[in-house]
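Let us practice reading a record.
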Amino acid sequence: MRSKTFFSDMIDEIDEAVEDIVEQVKGFELSKNSMGIVFADEEMDYPAFYEAFHREFDFPLMGCTAMATLFGDIGYCDSGVSLMVLTADDCEFALEITDSLDKSNGDAEIAGAYERASSKLSEKEKLVISYGVVATNQNDVSGDGLIKRLDEVVQGVPIFGGLATEAFNYKGSKVFCNDKAIDSGLVIALISGNINPKYVSVNSIENKSTFSFDITKSEGNIIYELNGKPLVKTLEDLDFIADKEDVIGDYLLSPFVVTMIQPSGDKVYAARNLSYLNLEEGSGTFLGFMPEGAGLSIGIINREDVQKSVQMAFSTMEKMIGDKRGYETLLCTTCCARFLALANDVKAEARVCQEQTPEGFSLFGMYSYGEFCPIKGEKTGKDYNMFHNFTFTILAI
């Protein structure tokens, strides 16, 4: 599979942006089958972009809004429209999108989108690339909810991607598929054929608090009690912010690290962002599942940890792909909390990506509100499709 990235900052004039991108793509030789991944500024009229682009190229597009994009050649871009084209004679691509999701229809919508996509393939997919939207109130489908259901229908096939973002207003996120833009949905691309995906996830949490808790009462992604005490009361006792409801921005640099035991006995770790507090009942809603019986601690992230984790991810990936034959494409997803940790040097993470991208590879990624990437269990080494926060993830294909 071959790939190439393209970028235009002319988002105020769709025709100019499309013309700019089209001229760049025309210089790239396409194989029998192709698809595109688009990351765009929330203010761009994506359906109009697709309509104009589709007049020149007939391959499908998918993607999402992103507050910033990472490239292996040009580095950090905080506005505009970004595109990666994947093309191959020996792979097939099938793209689909759900309708708007909530807890009442999420399972059925995700299963339906998968069934429609899989029916277009001549053989079972080997990789799923997916982007979604999760807001912050209690009726939303959590990031873990998206991954759990998608994992069930794809039967353990690796899932890579993340949650759409915007300029930290938590209202303008969308996912794209061909001519559609949905503000609370999930988009998927199934890839079959000659592909052997490799993936790595590394979190940026080097330092943790000295105190820890057991989750003694929870439901899904809502924690009611830690060590038998209401979550809000626990936060108050720690002098954390606990006097308002919408707290996603307040806790972006304070990851909650949860230790979960799988049915196989495997222990897996995930970082979680606290997004909403119910002051009346004393509970908190997180962007991922918080199961009863799991252990919980609180971490701290900084710029040095962010840069170190990127280097670790690339070093691990280089060992996994060996002599690099059969690989030339890297996709990455990195957490918005890591971006905030960069403080006044917002390009620090992108610089490391540029430095670490192997010669001849194209790298394309985005800042997300949650990352999708498999992770290995400590006991069996089995891969589990997981939802992450505060993590840098990378996929090689």
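A brief commentary: The chain has eight helices and 26 strands.
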